[in-house]
Amino acid sequence: MKILAIDTSCDESCAAIIDTQKWKLLADVVHSHINSMKNFGGVVPEIASREHLKGLPLAVHEALDSAKLKVDSIDHFVVTNRPGLIGSLLVGLSFTKSLAFSLGKPFSTLNHIEAHLFSPLMATLDGKEPPPFPWIACVVSGGHTEIFHVESIFKYRWLGGTLDDAAGEAFDKVGKLLKLPYPAGPKIDRWVREAASEEHRTRFSFPRAKTEVHTLSFSGLKTAVALEVKKRDLSNADEILALAASAQEAILDALVEKLRQTQKLVGVQTLVLTGGVACNSRLREKLPEAHFPSPKHCTDNAAMVALLAGYYAKHNQLAPESWNTTAYPSLSTLEGK
Question: What integer pLDDT is reported at residue 39 of this predicted model?
Answer without folding.
Answer: 84
